[in-house]
Amino acid sequence: MSNSNRDLELGAEKKRPWKADNHYYAAATTYVEEDGEWTPWLIPMFILASVVLFVAVMYVNDCPEKSLRTYGGCVAKFLGRISFQPLKENPLFGPSSSTLDRMGALDWNKIVHQKQGWRLITCMWLHAGVIHLLANMLCLAFVGICLEQQFGFVRVATIYLLSGFGGSILSSLFIQSRISVGASGALFGLVGAMVSELITNWTIYTNKAAALFMLIIIIALNLGLGVLPHVDNFAHIGGLLTGFLLGFILLVRPQFGWVDRQYLGAEAHAKKSKHKAYQYLLWLLALVLLIIGFIIGLVMLFKGESANDHCSWCHYLSCVPTSKWHCGNR
User: Fold this and answer.
1) What span, in angstroms and rounded, lies between the C-alpha atoms of 39 and 17?
2) Of 82, 91, 190, 166, nearest in space to 131 by CA
3) 84 with 75: CB under 8 angstroms?
4) Domain coverage including residue 122
5) What is the number of other CB atoms lying within 10 angstroms of the CB of residue 214?
6) For the packed helices 153-174 and 130-151, what is the interaxial angle rounded to 10 degrees?
7) b/e string for 129-158 if b means 16 or more Cβ within 10 A?
8) pLDDT tens figures, 206-234
């Protein structure tokens, strides 16, 4: 089956008019290739950059030379300078907390009092260990490459970076007593964008209820794991909300049939608008909420406020204390 007979959104045959000229088919084919057949390269580059940066962090960490041996010897000593901290200190096979802090981890005190706002961005490229890195990069490959194939690198990069930034802001507002690293907020942003993309383009999909249900289950399970200690669930939530709003803004598709009509003549094209009214409404609402959210979050952060003072129970969203563990000072 040729590309010209495939529908971009449904992946099935289109019911085309019997009397269509060659220009119509060529134009439709071009649209499919440009909007739905992007070759993913940005997400693989993000993955490569994260891996290279992790190796660089381990090189700076230099466990054999700088470790105090308080928790025992270095792990995987055959790696030399890039060997890991003792497992009692870092069970994820990675560097020390002090090294991560020097390399740009999210640190509320340094962001607010030393004006190091760049940490809101750099923290999403750092990982606490090999296990942390592998988990995030596998998720990024699975979700990110699929989105980049459909929507291109510009929109996916925007969602990824802004979602990571949004996750960092929310994390800094609630967790101010320890550092945080990882791409989890950016990853949750991509998943949130998938949900809003499905909602705003609801009329052009089949099996959409089942897809939405599965996405909600995936999000719920991951947020559920986030209530365990040492997991920054606020970064997850901040990234998820940011990506969810960005999906309404950046991932809007033309309604089904509009592409066909724009090549059938002005009269047919005039009968159907490119987007539905609810898509425009969701776009505007999401844009307003996103701008307001970033402004409020940044103002509170650089004023040194703690969001816990405005929400006494919100800390349970990131850690629920039990008889097996405590959540520490948040």
Assistant:
1) 31
2) 91
3) yes
4) 41-317
5) 11
6) 140
7) beebbebbbebbeebbbebbebbbbebbbe
8) 788 888 888 899 888 888 877 666 678 99
How far, in Å, CA of 211 to CA of 213, rounded? 5
- The dihedral built from the CA positions of residue 98, 101, 103 and 109, taken in this order, carries a sign that is negative
What pLDDT score does 314 carry? 86
The Cα 83–Cα 94 span in angstroms is: 8
Within a domain: 68:
yes
Q: Is residue 327 in a domain?
A: no
Cα-trace Rg, the chain: 23
Question: What gap in Å lies between CA 166 and CA 271, rounded to an integer?
Answer: 40
The answer to whether residue 166 is domain-embedded is yes
pLDDT tens by residue, 46-80: 999 999 999 999 999 999 988 877 778 899 999 99
Q: How many Å separate Cα 123 from the centre of its chain?
A: 13
The CATH number given to whatever domain includes residue 86 is 1.20.1540.10
Which tens digits make up the pLDDT trace of 258-299? 655 555 555 555 556 777 888 999 999 999 999 999 999 999
CB 181 within 8 A of CB 231: no
Whether residue 28 is contained in a domain is answered as no
Q: Is 236 a catalytic residue?
A: yes
* Structure-block tokens of residue 239: 């990234």
Q: Which of 158-162, 187-191, 267-271, 297-301 has the lowest mean pLDDT?
A: 267-271
- Whether 275 is catalytic is no
At residue 279, what is the residue type?
A: Q
Helix axes 184-200, 208-225, angle to 10 degrees: 160
Q: How many domains are contained in the chain? A: 1
Considering the candidates 96, 172, 196, 236, report the single residue annotated as catalytic. 236
Q: How far apart are CA 192 and CA 166, in angstroms?
A: 13
In the set 180, 184, 196, 318, the catalytic residue is 184
Indicate the residue type of 120: L
